[in-house]
Amino acid sequence: MNGTFLTGKSRIQQTDKSGYWMTLDNELYYDFNEDRIYVVPRYFWSDSYTFPRLLLIITGDKNRDDVRPPHQHDLFCRFHERLYTTLSFDELCTMGLLYEHEKGFMVCEDIPKEYLVIEKIKKWKADNLLREMMISCNISKFKASVARVGVFFNINWLKTGKRSLKTYNIYKEEIGLVDGR
Questions:
Q1: Which of 47, 119, 134, 151 would be 139's cystine partner, CB 3.0–4.6 Å?
Q2: pLDDT category, 167, cuts 50, 70, 90?
Q3: Which residue, 105, 106, 140, is CA-closest to 37?
Q4: Cα separation values, 136 from 65, 73, 173, Å
Q5: CA–CA separation, 109 and 41 (whole Å)
Q6: DSSP, residue by residue, the chain
Q7: 41/138 Cα distance (integer angstroms)
């Protein structure tokens, strides 16, 4: 395993756009290899799903897996950027930004924008990170590899990445609205 989610399972809310959900909490993933903590901000829109419909025969029900990996991957793909914090796990905890809300359920408050970095990401890296995040959520390596192959052939990457993330409004408005909404 090359990383772990620092925050608990996603709390999401259905949106008025069919098939899309909005994160209600900030989601953090710690990448051991790069010593970085990636952030999906609250109010991010996602379909919360990884597998193309054709792969359902192999992977099964699309709603039974952890939805945090698709949230990170959707952020990478929608903007061709990754958002991470310069703060360490210990600093997040010391500053009171990351704490245990309920027994075993970690929550992250809004990280001040001066501790956030936006950086370009290549599709290959985004897709590999998806696989690693899935494995960290106890999704089988086989299923994670099938998802990795499936997203490799997703041509939507060519249509996205026209907008950039901005830290000034990262927690103030719905990020990643679909179809420019």
A1: 134
A2: confident
A3: 106
A4: 12, 14, 29
A5: 10
A6: --EEE-S-S--EEE-SSTT-EEESS-EEEEETTTTEEEEE-TTBEE----S-GGGHHHH--TTSS-SHHHHHHHHHHHHTEEEEESS-HHHHHHTTSEEEEETTEEEEPPPPGGGEEEEE--HHHHHHHHHHHHHHTT--HHHHHHHHHHHHT-GGGGT---S---GGGTTTS-BT-GGG-
A7: 23
